[in-house]
Amino acid sequence: MLVLENATRLIVNNQIRDALKREGAIAAQDTRLAILSPASLSEEEKAHARFYSTGQVVRFGRGVAATGIARGAEYRVTGLGRTPKGREVVRLADEDGRSVEWDPRLGNARQVNVFNREDRDLAVGDRIQWRLANSDLALKNAERGTVEAIDSTRASIRWDRSQRLQSVDLSRHKTWDHGYSETVFSSQSKTYDRVYVLAPVNSGMVNGQNFYTAITRARFGVKLWTEDEKRLANKLAQHSGEKASALEGLGRLSRDTAASLSGRHRDSIRARRESQKVSRESRRIDRLLTGSSKQDHRPTVRAAESARQLADVMGSFLESLLRRAATE
């Protein structure tokens, strides 16, 4: 089943799993295991320490020799800090408790994976999905399989793609989740025989682009669930989900010439000009009242000259206001 948001994916996974348990398709006995769920940080966010949270797990695709960070090892975020030069860093602890300070800006964000630690119940018969490519297990991202046996933290999984049965230590390899649903975003480039799409009308992710992606994942058939078919159709018609092209943006800019802007905003532009003129005249008057003539040192003459100039300024200013009022 395809859903729009990750929160919905978790709910759907649990509900489908509960239904399968009631039908006996999944064993009654669960094993509680820890998993690493992607934190969904963008490449830009991964390059800044402030986006990391205490308790998250960071795994590096490439080692960092300067700090002793090893490739593929798990590091737990213990907090944030600053270097003596004021740079914000992420404080990490490895599996042995050794502390490391790491500056995300100095590395390649694509070589960093950030996870939230969560718990999942797993039973024989469960469908699971691998969520990160793993060369040690020869698994690709998003591979699906069925659990055929569980012994403590080790599960025997038969993978759909190759039909091979593989024993995996899930206490060591934790990047999996229940495989009953996935988001439309993660389904891109994949194809399924049949697709079931959950389409809640009030979701902010409802748009034409997302649903085009969803329905084109199917080879043979699509079923769509929604609360209100007509409202969904109207919303999809109103929200294509496509961004304006660069050419469209340039077209709008070329139409927004100075003349069209002044025509649309004539009143506000005129009011701003009046305000600026009043401000300029006020500053000029202040200078006249407080200033002094460097060439004339007689106080009486300076005061008289300032008063005359002030009267001239005020007179011309008031006359301009009266003329403007008469023409409007």
Q: List the uncertain runs.
A: 243-257, 292-297
Biggest pleated sheet: 6 strands, antiparallel
CATH architecture of the domain at 34-120: Roll
CATH topology of the domain at 34-120: SH3 type barrels
Q: Provide the helix percentage.
A: 25-40%
- Overall shape: flat
Spatial strand order of the main sheet: 2-7-3-4-5-6
Order of helices and strands: EHEHEEEEEEEEEEEEHEHHHHH
Measured by DSSP, the beta-strand proportion falls in 25-35%
Alpha-beta content class: alpha+beta
Q: Give the C-alpha Rg.
A: 34 Å
Q: Quote the average pLDDT.
A: 81
Structural summary, described in words:
About 6% of the residues have low confidence. Among the domains are: 87 residues, SH3 type barrels (Roll); 55 residues, no CATH class; 51 residues. It has 328 residues and is of the alpha+beta class. The two termini are 67 Å apart. The relative contact order is 0.10. It has a six-stranded antiparallel beta sheet, with no helix packed on it. A five-stranded antiparallel beta sheet has the order 11-10-9-8-12, with no helix packed on it.
